[in-house]
């Protein structure tokens, strides 16, 4: 059994957020933080990860998302799917959040559903769910 943990990180599309949510938060600041955290996650030994951006206005969003889940990572099921705070932290996104969670549950029920932010980084969220994952010594 491989100790590699494959993570699909799901977050709001930043261009869509800039057009639709810039009155609620500083999108460029959030984008910079998310990219920094994703780089930290990517550098953790034993973690392989991708980002999947969602745009709630996109036609076929859930079909595309389900296909991405079924595709997996290198042909194997995702071990974890992480949903970011932008998707779950606003009541405006509740329907999107619920549909994403149910799609994950339906398509890859063996995968862990992980939640990041605002109190934890992406790596901390993965470490919480996969205790054998530890940050690299240079990021401590």
TrEMBL record:
This is Uncharacterized protein.
